Amino acid sequence: MQPERPDEGTSDVSDEKPIRVILANPRGFCAGVTRAIEIVDKCLELYGPPVYVRHEIVHNKHVVDSLRARGAVFVDELDEVPHGAVTVFSAHGVSKAVINDAKQRQLPVVDATCPLVSKVHKEGQNHAARGREVVLIGHAGHPEVEGTQGQIPGGVYLVSAASDVDGLVVRDPENLAYVTQTTLSVDDTREVIEALKLRFPAIVGPDVKDICYATQNRQSAVREIAREADLLLVVGSRNSSNSNRLREIGAEMGKPSFLIADAEALRPEWMEGVATVAVTAGASAPEALVQGLIDRLGDFGRVEVIEQAGVEEHTQFKLPRILQDGERIKADESVA
């Protein structure tokens, strides 16, 4: 008796060529984001809900919704915060006007500003103290930029692209400095700096060193994995500057590149003819969202996950001491 043969035209799924998924390393949470989330968590634990947070603690809806479910209340302005309520400033930083407003309202404040953003504030303040005018390279309307603008005495000149430099008029070209938003594209920022130096040879500043280590590492990782991919997927929120820069890098390399909030945003037509997918996540996107995307990619075939070697990040930022000690924050007190 002859053994039965499988019907022609059918195939064993295990014989199908898998979809290669290359995961960027590093990806997802950076030290500043981790610290900011931990600050809200610790405030909820020590003082109980509600804890009020000015603006989104970080730019990710899933993170914000999770903290909201535990009792965090997110507000646009401080006048929405009840008298005496524990208040947290977001990781993006705030202006001195916001700090003064909190003091006048006698709000006990925990400042979750990323230490690398605070470093930029200090650099700008030091330049202003030396009599220099300050140019800020950044995107208008971004919370970090608004905070930095309000931290530097005398204000700043804001430029977003090299093309903005041609029309920049300053009072004293010989006394000029620049600082940068921490989440910009390294390449774009370098172009702006070169344009500033060409127009104002006496200008001083930190090259691209103000761009945070995590932003630079994630951009370098994306450049590596995008070379091998047919498609780049960046997990992150649309209002996340660093996530948008990751998508732009892929697009500049000629690869179809999409910024998606989570697995549900993946569109089937993007997968047509795709054999290799590069996946990364912005600095405020939880790893659970990346794993959810990998599960979703399994709907289109067998998935082979490859972890990029990448750069190991060991940076950690401590919580404010008052939270470590579990002490009560006094009204009109601000801790960072």
UniProtKB/TrEMBL annotation:
A Pfam family recorded for this sequence: LYTB
InterPro entries hit by this protein: LytB/IspH (IPR003451)
Cofactor: how bound: Binds 1 [4Fe-4S] cluster per subunit.
Pathway: Isoprenoid biosynthesis; isopentenyl diphosphate biosynthesis via DXP pathway; isopentenyl diphosphate from 1-deoxy-D-xylulose 5-phosphate: step 6/6; Isoprenoid biosynthesis; dimethylallyl diphosphate biosynthesis; dimethylallyl diphosphate from (2E)-4-hydroxy-3-methylbutenyl diphosphate: step 1/1
Entry keywords, A to Z: 4Fe-4S, Iron, Iron-sulfur, Isoprene biosynthesis, Metal-binding, Oxidoreductase
Cofactor: [4Fe-4S] cluster
Gene Ontology biological process terms from the UniProt entry: dimethylallyl diphosphate biosynthetic process; isopentenyl diphosphate biosynthetic process, methylerythritol 4-phosphate pathway; terpenoid biosynthetic process
Domain of life: Bacteria
EC number: 1.17.7.4
Binding site for (2E)-4-hydroxy-3-methylbut-2-enyl diphosphate: 59, 92, 142, 182, 240-242, 284
Catalysis performed (reactions): isopentenyl diphosphate + 2 oxidized [2Fe-2S]-[ferredoxin] + H2O = (2E)-4-hydroxy-3-methylbut-2-enyl diphosphate + 2 reduced [2Fe-2S]-[ferredoxin] + 2 H(+); dimethylallyl diphosphate + 2 oxidized [2Fe-2S]-[ferredoxin] + H2O = (2E)-4-hydroxy-3-methylbut-2-enyl diphosphate + 2 reduced [2Fe-2S]-[ferredoxin] + 2 H(+)
Active site per database record: 144 (proton donor)
Catalytic EC class: oxidoreductase
Binding site for dimethylallyl diphosphate: 59, 92, 142, 240-242, 284
Binding annotation for isopentenyl diphosphate: 59, 92, 142, 240-242, 284
CDD domains: lytB_ispH
One Gene Ontology molecular-function label: 4-hydroxy-3-methylbut-2-enyl diphosphate reductase activity
Function: Catalyzes the conversion of 1-hydroxy-2-methyl-2-(E)-butenyl 4-diphosphate (HMBPP) into a mixture of isopentenyl diphosphate (IPP) and dimethylallyl diphosphate (DMAPP). Acts in the terminal step of the DOXP/MEP pathway for isoprenoid precursor biosynthesis.
Sequence similarity: Belongs to the IspH family.
Protein name: 4-hydroxy-3-methylbut-2-enyl diphosphate reductase
Gene name for this UniProt entry: ispH
